[in-house]
Amino acid sequence: MSTEHTTAGPLVAELPQGDISYRAAGPRSSSHPPVVFVHGLLVDARLWEPVAERLASDGIRSYAPTLPLGSHQRPMNADADLSPQGIAALTRDFLEALDLSDVTIVGNDTGGAICQLMLGGDTSRIGGAVLTNCDAFGSFPPRGLAPLFHALRHPGLVACLAPALRSQAVRHGPLAFGPLSSGPLDGALTSDWVQPLAGKAIRHDLAKFARGVRPGLLLDAAGRFGQFTGPVRILWGDADPYFRVELGRRLSESFPHATFTTVPAGRTFLPLDRPAEVANEIAAATGRSLRAGPV
Question: What is residue 31's predicted lDDT score, i.e. its pLDDT?
Answer without folding.
Answer: 87
